[in-house]
Amino acid sequence: MDLKTFIALKEHHLLNSVPDTFESLETITKASTELIQSIYDSKPILGEGEVFIETLSFKLLLTTKSIIELGKGTKVSALTKDSSVYLLDFPSINVLTRSIIEAFLTLEYLFFNDLDDEERKFRFNIWQISGYKSRQSFFEKSQNLNAEVNQKLREEFDEIERLLEIIKKSPHYKTLKKHNLWKLDKFGLPRLESWQKLLEQSILKTNVFEIPYKLYSNYAHSEFISLIQMNGSDTLNKGSKINNEHILNALRVVKMINCIAITSLKNKFDFAEKVFEKYDEETKTTILFWNEFGIE
Length: 296
Hints:
This protein has 296 residues and is mainly alpha-helical.
């Protein structure tokens, strides 16, 4: 039996085991940590804004680690009575899984793509403008801000003006639709498309990720559909059949996104490729298996 077939059979077995899937995911996070560390260690000459590849990758990694911690379960006790029942908070895991999907989509939208430098810079600049505009609006009605905060806000306002001058000279500025120009002026425009559209246009398989993303967005917004899925006598009990099903559905998505992100990172940088090639063969084959399974 070759290694790829062995890994496929092993991963098929893990699909039905919560503890084994968490253990496997922990191994993936260790591989991811080494790859992210290689960005820092190699001190490469990065393109404009590419320092955020490390930041977004680390955000994805930390969110995954938080999911693993939640997988240990927790007891909810009252002041007068201790509890012996461990609960596994799959609703929070679902919300974090949505965040992981969005972190990868942001990486792809800004960096892991085949766009020319001009268009990539345009996307990055309007992304920056939107972030700065959001912070300006947070403090718009605030009074008695300290001198340090006021200074920071003035500097960021000047940076918004500078970046606006840059993007208005870009040929891509003329392609913005009227409602996007209005958003850019009023609130900022972090993405040219909705999350749903970015998902459809990404390398991620739409038929694999679309439904989980929509479902987990309902959890993030406390919609009715998410609340009714929390009902049941043992739905939140760690180890119950229904709880395991919820957890496994999310963990499959988390594992795939991590493996796709690792593969995208090693394809982006030669130094990351060298780190990846030093992984043991089973880890490499597992990552490439889930990457292939999850992308178009």
